Amino acid sequence: YPRVFGYAFKPVSFWFCHRHDDDDGGSLRAIVVEGNNTFGERHCYLLAGADLAWGREQRARKVFHVSPFSAIEGHYRFRFLRSADGSRIVVRIDHHDASGVLLQTSLSGQLEPLTAASVRRAFFGIPMMSFGVIGRIHWQALRVWLKRVPFQSKPQCDFKSAADFLDLAGRARIQQGFIHRTEGVDPAVHTLKPDD
User: Fold this and answer.
1) 177: Cβ–Cβ under 8 A, 6 or more apart, which residues?
2) Residue 60 near residue 74, CB atoms below 8 Å
3) What is the pLDDT of residue 182?
């Protein structure tokens, strides 16, 4: 979503990576789920593998602090559905822990190429979207807090700067668009807030 008065907030974005060398015109190779929290942090979950396809459930372990009312535990179940003509998409995200389902969400919409015209339509169609989203997040947080749901403190980042993280993550190599772990380092489970 475009910035309004220099501000944009997207709780989640999806990046669909398609094969270009197969006969069906681009089956899924990977999906990157980019989550953002209200603390200015971002984490990406890479969904890939032989079982990745439209309509099939994908799982990822929760490793990112999203809400002060939800611990960093459990896993997400993702399901991506697409209309026959490929113009509409539905995304389901369910958060589970050892006790069962904690949260069920879904998003849907029309897929459009990113062009100057589509950005203008988004901007003028819903000009205050980011402010509305962040306002609703805080309103729901207040309602949950008033119900006395236990507060989970935000864990501290293990790194003092982006340079520390990049030094450690440098031991991981990127090959054919996928992150491979080396020397026991898993850079996918660390989150940084950019230096101000």
Assistant:
1) 17, 29, 30
2) no
3) 32
pLDDT, tens digit, for every residue of 114-128?
Answer: 899 988 888 888 878
Say how many Å lie between the first and final Cα of the chain, rounded: 22
**Burial code of 145-164, b = ≥16 C-beta within 10 A, e = fewer?**
eeeeeeeeeeeeeebeeeee
The Cα 27–Cα 47 span in angstroms is 14
What pLDDT digit, counting tens, does each position of 51-82 carry? 999 999 999 999 998 888 888 899 999 999 99
The DSSP bridge pattern shows strands 12-18 and 100-110 to be: unpaired
Distances (CA, A) of 65 to 101, 130, 170, 187: 18, 20, 23, 16
**Quick one: what percent of the chain has pLDDT higher than 70?**
76
Among 86, 76, 81, 88, residue whose Cα is nearest residue 35 = 76
Predicted pLDDT at 108 = 92
